[in-house]
Design goal:
alpha+beta; five-stranded mixed beta sheet; 23 strands; globular; disordered C terminus
Length: 715
C-alpha cells in the first residue's frame, strides 16, 4: 500500500504539471477519439452497433473495465433521440501494462469499444437520427492526464445496410472481444493464493507462450504479482496471488483468460470470457432492453444552481450532526468570551471562522479532484481512509481537550493551535476552528449532500469548487449570522467565572470524539499499529504537561522542558507517519449477523438471478452510517421483513479504500457513504435516503414480494 500511495502521489504531481501546462486540457495528440456507425442508415426496431474508436499516442495507454492497480476506465454518456436505447460497452480483451511496481489492465495503440443501440419501433423518414456521446477517459504514460471528447454523428432513416468503408473496423473490433468460455474451470484456494484449473486437455506446453487472467473484480487478486502457469495432461493451471488473504475466498472468479499460442503463422492470442454471459448479438440486446430504457440518474438532471442550493442546505444541516458539535461548542464558548468586545471585532471573528471553513472545503475539494484526475478511486471523506490522518486528528483533539480541562494553556508560542494563535487579535484561532470544523464534519453526510457532491465531481473544476464552496458556506452560516446580528450579540451572557466550569465541561465531548477516532483507527490498523497510536496519545499528554510545567519553572529550566515537549510532538508526528493500513475490514462479525461482504461479482450474480438484494455502503468513520445501522437497519422488524422476503444483505466497508465500492458510489451519483440500494429482483435499484428511519426501510421492503415463511435467513 505504501508503494502504491507513493507512486500515485508521483503520478499526481506529474499530472498536475502536465495539466497546468496544457491549461487543464488533454493534449490533442494523446487520444484521437471518433464515433462510427456500422450501418449507413437506421430503421425502426432494427438494432445496430456503434463504435467508439480511441487511437492512443505510442507509449500511452487507456484502461479496461477493471483498470488494475490504478486508473479509470473510459465512460460514455449518450444523448440519443427519444425511444433509442444504448446497451453496455463490449470490452475487448485487455493487456497487462506494468508501471513501476503497479500492474494496470488496459490498451495501447488503438482500442474500439462496441455499443449496441436499439431504435424505437418506427422512425420518421424525414427526420435524421442525431447521436451524441460524451467520452471521458484517463490516458497515462508515467503521468496521467484526464481527457474528454464530444462525439456526434447523424444517420438517415432508411435501409440499415452495412457501411462498406467501416466493415474492416468492426470485424477487427469483434475479433478482439473475448469468446465464450472454451474450457470448464474449477476455482480453489489455499492460503494466500487462488488456483484456476482449466480442463484444457491436449494443450502442448511448448506452444503456449503466455497466459494471463484478468478478473472483473478490482479487489480479487494482487494484480502486480506473477501469475504462475502450469500445463499437464489434465489441462491448464494458473496460480494467482490473493489481494487480501484475510478476507473470505471468493466462490467464483469471473474474468477474461488470454492465451498466447505459437502457430506456424506466428503467435496467436486467444481470449475467453468466464462468468459473464457471452456477448449477445445486437438483436438479442434489443429484445431485452426495448421495453425498459434505463432511467437517467437524478444527479444528471441537476444544474449548477440546484446543486449549489442542495449543497448549501446540506451544509446547514451538518451543524446539527454529532461530528461538528464538539468543535462548535468550543467556538460558541469563545464567542461568549468575546461578547464584551465591540460588534465590529466580533464580526471579524465570524468572518475569520467562515474563511477557515471555506478555505478547508475548497482545499479538500481541490485535492480530491486532483487525485481523481490522477486515477485514484476515492471520494468525499477520503482523508479519513488514511490511518495517519485519523491518528493526527485524534492527537489534535486530545490536545484541545487537555487545554479545555486546564492541563495546559495554548499561547502565542504554540502557533498553529487554538485561539491563542495570536494574542493580539485571536482571529487566527477563529480561522483554525473553521478548519477543524470542516475536518470533523466530513465523516457525516447530511441530507441533500450526496446528490450535490456527486454532481460536483462529474463536472468541471470550476463548477465543482462552486458547489463545495456552497457546502462550506452552509456549514459556516449559523455562526457567521450570530456574529453579524447585533440582537444575538446583546443576548449573549457576560464573561464570568462560570466560563471556566463550562469550558471544562465542554472538554468531554472532545474526549468522546477522540475515543471514536481511536475506534475508527482500530478498524484500519492491526494490533501493533493500534499500540503505536495509543502510545502517541500518551506522548501528546506528556508534551502538554511538560509544556505547562516549563512555563511555571525558572526560564532556563523552562526552555529545556518546553524543548523536550516540542521534541515529543516531533516524535508523535513521526509515529503517525509510520502507521500502516495492515488490517483488512473484518468480515467475520458481519457474516455472523447474517450479512455478506460486498463484492461486485456477488452483486452481479444475485441481480442476474433476479433475487432481491439490499446493499449498505458504510465506513467505520461515518457517524451517519452508524446511526442508521443502529436505529433503522438492525431492528427486529427490519431484519424480519428482509428474512420474510428472502433479501440478501450485502455490506460494503469503505473504511479503507476499495475501488469497487467507489465505482458503485459513482454509478449512483455519490462520492461518499452512506449509500443504500434495494434491488427488488426486477428493474433498477431503488436508492434510499441517506438519513433512514425504520419506517422508510420497511416501506421500501414492501416492494419486494414475500418469499414465504420458509424463506432462508437474510444473508
Amino acid at each position: 500500500m505504501i508503494r502504491r500511495l507513493a507512486f500515485l502521489l508521483l503520478m499526481l504531481a506529474a499530472s498536475l504539471s502536465a495539466a497546468s501546462a496544457q491549461g487543464f486540457r488533454t493534449p490533442p495528440d494523446l487520444v484521437r477519439a471518433s464515433l462510427v456507425a456500422e450501418p449507413v442508415a437506421v430503421a425502426g426496431a432494427q438494432p445496430f452497433t456503434l463504435a467508439v474508436r480511441m487511437q492512443v499516442k505510442p507509449g500511452w495507454h487507456v484502461y479496461w473495465r477493471n483498470p488494475g492497480d490504478s486508473g479509470l476506465p473510459p465512460e460514455v454518456t449518450w444523448t440519443l433521440p427519444a425511444g433509442f436505447n444504448a446497451g453496455a460497452i463490449q470490452w475487448p480483451a485487455p493487456e497487462r501494462i506494468a508501471i513501476a511496481t503497479l500492474m494496470n489492465y488496459g490498451y495501447e495503440g488503438e482500442v474500439t469499444l462496441l455499443v449496441p443501440v436499439t431504435p424505437p419501433p418506427s422512425l420518421d423518414p424525414a427526420d435524421p437520427v442525431r447521436i451524441q456521446a460524451k467520452l471521458t477517459y484517463l490516458v497515462c504514460e508515467t503521468e496521467c492526464v484526464p481527457g474528454s471528447a464530444d462525439l456526434a454523428l447523424t444517420l438517415p432513416a432508411g435501409e440499415p445496410r452495412p457501411d462498406a468503408g467501416q466493415t474492416a473496423l468492426f470485424e477487427r473490433a469483434r475479433a478482439a472481444l473475448p469468446a465464450p468460455a472454451l474450457w470448464p474451470v474449477r476455482l480453489s484456494s489455499q492460503g494466500d493464493t487462488l488456483q484456476l484449473d482449466f480442463a484444457a486437455a491436449g494443450l502442448k506446453p511448448e506452444t503456449i507462450k503466455g497466459v494471463a487472467f484478468f478478473p472483473y473484480s478490482e479487489t480479487a487478486i494482487d494484480n502486480a504479482a506473477a501469475q504462475v502457469m502450469a500445463i499437464d495432461e489434465s489441462g491448464l493451471h494458473l496460480t494467482l496471488a490473493r489481494s487480501n488473504p484475510a478476507e473470505p475466498a471468493p466462490a467464483a472468479l469471473p474474468g477474461v483468460l488470454t492465451v498466447e499460442e505459437a502457430t506456424g503463422a506466428g503467435t496467436h492470442r486467444l481470449a475467453f470470457a468466464y462468468g459473464d454471459e457471452p456477448v449477445p448479438p445486437a438483436s438479442a440486446v434489443a429484445a431485452e432492453t426495448l421495453a425498459t430504457p434505463p432511467p437517467t440518474p437524478a444527479f444528471d438532471a441537476l444544474t449548477l444552481a440546484t446543486a449549489a442550493g442542495l449543497a448549501f442546505l446540506g451544509g446547514l444541516i451538518l451543524n446539527l450532526m454529532p461530528c461538528v458539535f464538539p468543535v462548535l461548542s468550543i467556538k460558541v464558548l469563545g464567542l461568549v468570551r468575546h461578547a464584551g468586545e465591540s460588534a465590529a471585532r466580533v464580526r471579524l471573528h465570524g468572518l475569520a471562522y467562515t474563511a477557515g471553513v471555506l478555505a478547508s472545503f475548497l482545499g479538500l475539494a481541490g485535492l480530491l479532484l486532483a487525485l481523481k484526475g490522477g486515477g485514484a478511486a476515492i471520494g468525499w471523506g477520503f482523508q479519513l481512509q488514511s490511518p495517519a490522518v485519523v491518528a493526527g486528528l485524534a492527537y489534535l483533539l486530545l490536545a484541545m481537550g487537555l487545554s479545555l480541562s486546564g492541563v495546559f494553556h495554548l499561547g502565542g508560542r504554540l502557533a498553529g493551535l487554538g485561539d491563542g494563535l495570536a494574542r493580539r487579535s485571536g482571529l487566527s484561532g477563529s480561522f483554525f476552528t473553521g478548519v477543524l470544523a470542516t475536518l470533523v464534519a466530513t465523516p457525516c453526510t447530511a441530507p441533500f449532500m450526496g446528490s450535490a457532491v456527486g454532481f460536483a465531481l462529474t463536472q468541471s473544476a470550476g463548477v465543482a469548487l462552486a458547489v463545495f464552496a456552497s457546502l462550506g458556506l452552509g456549514l459556516a452560516l449559523p455562526f457567521l449570522a450570530l456574529t453579524l446580528w447585533p440582537p444575538a450579540l446583546r443576548a449573549l451572557p457576560r464573561p464570568g467565572a462560570w466560563m471556566e466550569t463550562l469550558k471544562q465541561v465542554l472538554a468531554f465531548p472532545v474526549y468522546a470524539t477522540v475515543a471514536w477516532l481511536v475506534w475508527v483507527l482500530a478498524q484500519q490498523v492491526g494490533p501493533q499499529g493500534l499500540l503505536a497510536a495509543l502510545i502517541g496519545l500518551v506522548l501528546v499528554g506528556f508534551a502538554a504537561w511538560a509544556w505547562e510545567h516549563g512555563r511555571a519553572t525558572a526560564p532556563r529550566v523552562g526552555r529545556i522542558v518546553q524543548g523536550l515537549a516540542a521534541l515529543t510532538i516531533v516524535a508523535v508526528a513521526a509515529l503517525t507517519l509510520t502507521l500502516d493500513r495492515d488490517r483488512a475490514a473484518p468480515a467475520a462479525q458481519a457474516a455472523a449477523n447474517g450479512i455478506e461482504p460486498f463484492t461486485q461479482a456477488r452483486l452481479d450474480t444475485l441481480v442476474n438471478e433476479h433475487r432481491p438484494v439490499f446493499v449498505n455502503m458504510t465506513a467505520a468513520w461515518c457517524i451517519t452510517c452508524a446511526v442508521n445501522e443502529t436505529t433503522s437497519l438492525s431492528t427486529k422488524a427490519v431484519r424480519t421483513a428482509m428474512a420474510d422476503r428472502g433479501v440478501t444483505y450485502l455490506m460494503g466497508d469503505w473504511t479503507n479504500q476499495n475501488p469497487e465500492i467507489t465505482r458503485l458510489l459513482e454509478t449512483h451519483g455519490r462520492s461518499g457513504v452512506p449509500l443504500y440500494l434495494l434491488y427488488t429482483g426486477t428493474g433498477e435499484p431503488q436508492v434510499l435516503p441517506q438519513i433512514l428511519t425504520e419506517g422508510t426501510v420497511l416501506s421500501a421492503l414492501e416492494m419486494v414480494p414475500a418469499a414465504g415463511k420458509n424463506a432462508a435467513l437474510v444473508r
